[in-house]
Write a structure and sequence with these properties.
The structure is a single chain. It contains five helices and four strands. By secondary structure, the protein is α+β, with helices and mostly antiparallel strands. The protein has two domains: 34 residues, no CATH class; 96 residues. It has a four-stranded mixed sheet with strand order 1-2-4-3. It is globular, with a radius of gyration of 16 Å. The chain starts with a helix and ends with a strand.
Length: 139
């Protein structure tokens, strides 16, 4: 259904669909090859939301983000749920500690390239990604 939605969208001509495991060497090579020299790069991570996978994506995709641009980690709201609030009618149940917010916080301990954008995060009163908007501040 995702492919159909992308291909039928009026802006489809501006989208390059790269399919494969997001952090595999083959997929990463295709992604890197699709970025023109000197391009401004923003990354939005929104696939498997388990901590290990999001951390792997952060380590692979965050280096692609250019100065002044954004890295967005989707669905950090999952890290703010109490165990009783965790959605269970999903293909994967992500309990507190195994979700994007924990991965993001772990990654921020590994790098000084990104800062939480308090302005954007503060404006998004209703968001599925609170604290998930990071600005690249160092090459």
């Amino acid at each position: 259904h995702n492919r159909q939605a992308i291909e039928s969208h009026p802006m489809a001509h501006r989208v390059e669909l790269i399919e494969g495991p997001s952090t595999s060497a083959e997929t990463m090579a295709k992604v890197k090859a699709s970025i023109p020299e000197g391009a401004s790069v923003m990354v939005i991570l929104d696939s498997d939301h388990s901590k290990a996978h999001v951390l792997d994506e952060l380590r692979n995709y965050a280096p692609l983000v250019t100065d002044g641009h954004y890295l967005v980690v989707a669905d950090t709201i999952l890290g703010r749920y109490e165990p009783s609030q965790v959605p269970t009618k999903r293909s994967k149940v992500l309990l507190p500690g195994d979700e994007p917010l924990v991965a993001l916080n772990d990654y921020l301990q590994e790098t000084d390239r990104f800062e939480l954008d308090t302005i954007i995060n503060g404006k998004l009163v209703l968001s599925s990604s609170p604290g998930g908007y990071l600005r690249c501040v160092r090459s």
